[in-house]
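Below is a filled-in request sheet from our internal design queue. Each sheet records the structural input a requester submitted and the sequence that came back. We keep these sheets so that new team members can see what a complete request looks like end to end.

REQUESTER: design group, bay 2
PRIORITY: normal
MODE: inverse folding
CHAIN LENGTH: 247
BACKBONE (tokenized):
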């Protein structure tokens, strides 16, 4: 019978320890780590039952922040090795946006607490990262340029101004924004707006990965009214009354 080694997520330096970190942060860290492993394992073994792909938390140790987990199947160990290679080669192109978000959280934890992060498979250190680690797609799988995006404002604010939009009713996308734009969007929560700016998006599924807004387009009833008023310059009243026939 093959021995399945434990998997440890460890953070060291700058006085990091469990008692110095919020319980919610540790919970989110464990959640992101497990979600990343599950996604990688499922991609490698599509027929795998997701309910079997889990990590059991064995202990959280003081001194440093050590999260010790036990994988229950070999597929999990293989997935962790793949994740380790991604950190070692600084290549995260093969992950979905959701998986990349979870991996980013793991790396950002080290940045937030100014400490070193390590992933161990048994006694072998398979990954290391710190505040300078940048988890992102490489340019080869993305397209950049100026664009206009439209969505519903879900959130706007924070000490470090940040905005969350619901894009096309399909997915939420969050990004940093200048304070003046954030203030204006905060006054338009749950309203549809447009934003002009520079974006980088996945050229395979067209989802936005990064966005830097420069200008807001307010969509309101007046602008719609103006659009219909302008139509009267090209169509007669009879044409407008029978618009479905024209279309």
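RETURNED SEQUENCE:
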């Amino acid at each position: 019978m093959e021995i399945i080694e434990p998997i440890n997520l460890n953070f060291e330096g700058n006085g990091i320890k469990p008692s110095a970190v919020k319980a919610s942060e540790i919970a989110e860290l464990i959640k992101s780590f497990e979600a990343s492993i599950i996604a990688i394992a499922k991609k490698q073994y599509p027929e795998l039952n997701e309910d079997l792909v889990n990590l059991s938390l064995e202990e959280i140790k003081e001194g440093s922040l050590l999260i010790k987990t036990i994988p229950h199947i070999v597929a999990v160990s293989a997935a962790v090795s793949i994740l380790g290679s991604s950190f070692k080669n600084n290549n995260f192109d093969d992950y979905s946006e959701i998986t990349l978000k979870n991996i980013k959280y793991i790396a950002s934890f080290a940045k937030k607490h100014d400490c070193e992060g390590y992933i161990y498979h048994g006694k072998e250190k398979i990954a290391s990262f710190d505040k300078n680690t940048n988890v992102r797609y490489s340019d080869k799988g993305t397209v950049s340029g100026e664009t206009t995006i439209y969505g519903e404002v879900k959130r706007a604010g924070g000490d470090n101004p940040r905005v969350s939009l619901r894009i096309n009713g399909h997915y939420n996308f969050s990004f940093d924004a200048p304070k003046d734009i954030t203030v204006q969007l905060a006054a338009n929560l749950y309203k549809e707006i447009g934003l002009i700016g520079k974006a980088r998006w996945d050229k395979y599924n067209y989802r936005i990965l990064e966005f830097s807004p420069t200008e807001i387009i307010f969509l309101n009833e007046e602008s719609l009214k103006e659009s219909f008023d302008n139509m009267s310059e090209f169509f007669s009243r009879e044409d407008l009354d029978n618009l479905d026939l024209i279309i």
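SHEET NOTES:
- Residues 221-225, 243-247 have pLDDT under 50 and may be disordered.
- The chain has seven helices and ten strands.
FILED BY: M.R.
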